[in-house]
Amino acid sequence: MRASSRKWLHKYSSTLITGICILLFLVYLAFFSGADWSLFREQFLNFEKMEGRYYIFISPLLLVVKISIYSCFFATFIGLCLAVLRSYKIKFFDVTITAYVILFRSIPAMVLVVLVYFALPFVGLNLPSTNSVIMSLSLLFGAYTTEIFRSGINSVEKLQIEASKSLGMNSIQAMYHVILPQAMRVVIPPLTTVLIDVLKTTSIAYVVGVPELIARARQMEGVIGSVTPLIFVSVLYFLIILPVVILSSRLEKRSRKWSNS
Amino acid sequence: MINNIPQSKAILSVVDLTKNFGDLHVLKGISNTFYEGEVVSIIGPSGSGKSTLIRCLNHIEEPTSGQIIFEGVEITNPSTDINAVRRDMGMVFQNFGLFPHLTALENIMLAPRKVKKQSRDEAKNKALKLLERVGLSDKAENYPEQLSGGQQQRVAIARSLAMQPKVLLFDEPTSALDPEMVREVLDVMMGLAKDGMTMIVVSHEINFIRQASSRVLVLVDGEIIEDGPSEQVIESPSHPRTKEFLGKLL
Lengths: 261, 250
Known about the structure:
The complex is a heterodimer. By secondary structure, chain A is an all-alpha fold. Chain A is built from 11 helices and no strands. Chain A has helices at about 1-30, 35-45, 45-50, 60-85, 90-105, 110-120, 130-155, 160-165, 170-200, 215-225, 230-255. By secondary structure, chain B is α/β, with parallel strands linked by helices. Chain B folds into 2 domains: about 1-85 and about 170-250, 3-Layer(aba) Sandwich (Rossmann fold); about 95-165, no CATH class. Chain B is built from 9 helices and 10 strands.
């Protein structure tokens, strides 16, 4: 019992020290810095005023989750397909995909959402506002995931392809059974970062009138005269992102089970 | 000496093969015929084009010109389905090239299952037999990183054998190994030679050449300068460059 608790202490000592430092800093802020905390509480943590209004966030929360899931799926799908296409080193794909990546990495998200929603109808494509946001986010973040998957594929050594070929595999079999499983190990951490970014960027949906979380929070902010709704919405975002982070670290562990490094 | 007299049936022919890397002429017109059941060693100083030659044989390296004919199929012809040809030509690499995300057993099973469409049980049974043959039955569930170099190379040989190739190509199979592991790999190779496997081996392992190889090709500066029975080439080489090279090797 004592031995195990000592082991625990040893394992988490750095976390513990960091925690104690943060705690001490908060105690200093609260009691010794001389700040007016009652005003702070009223501005940022005024949950009394929010009572009875929480239901307002239910439908935007579901909407954000829906947009996020679709956008993450399509962004990953686009990135995977384009990176695989590029790996065949065919001039046409090389040029067009590079152009796509450069272009969409430099467009501000808000501009693209506005363009897709308001400009596409001119070429006969009328998308509902939610779908136009999904399309915009997928295209934007597809450019990032393309680069992530590309670097993952490039990280697999050439010998792996030669070994696959020498066993009679065609290039699709080699890609699916040999290259991609190894690329995943490199891909998962940066991919997670991008997918979390997708979740948070859903907030620009308000520019085309999609009633998402941030927009609702800002409306409520005006009504109750406190920033508390934004704080509350941040907590919601955290709760959405948490499972993504957990899932990704699980996947990462699984993709590393064959390697000591 | 095993397979001293080559059987008459030609399995692989090379006609006037050249390979350039830019301005560098690595192979300058190689012609040779390999017969069924033969064990041919290719030796020569580094940079002479040995690896390039053996990599051209299964078209992992694309030759600049010339023909390669395997069992009557011209594999240098662009309309040939090269993947189908490679099923019958195994290759063992200097750095093993095992798939690190798969266990030893899965490494061996992958191609038979996906390329030959064998059932899981069938592929597994065959793979276990092959692991036994290379002496690694107890390592079936280990990942390549958990194996020594010699063990990895033996798994790689088993993986090639799983496709039941008609010819096995070895590209310096023992060069990346620590000295104490060379023996175990050579033992497996000699066992294969004894079983009548057609093998083309780039290697300087003089023991292997003496004991298992029926014929030796000496490659210098992209040309075959000597081609003859192992004993003759090793003991009484005719070309001065061969003498010079063997002098350094022995």
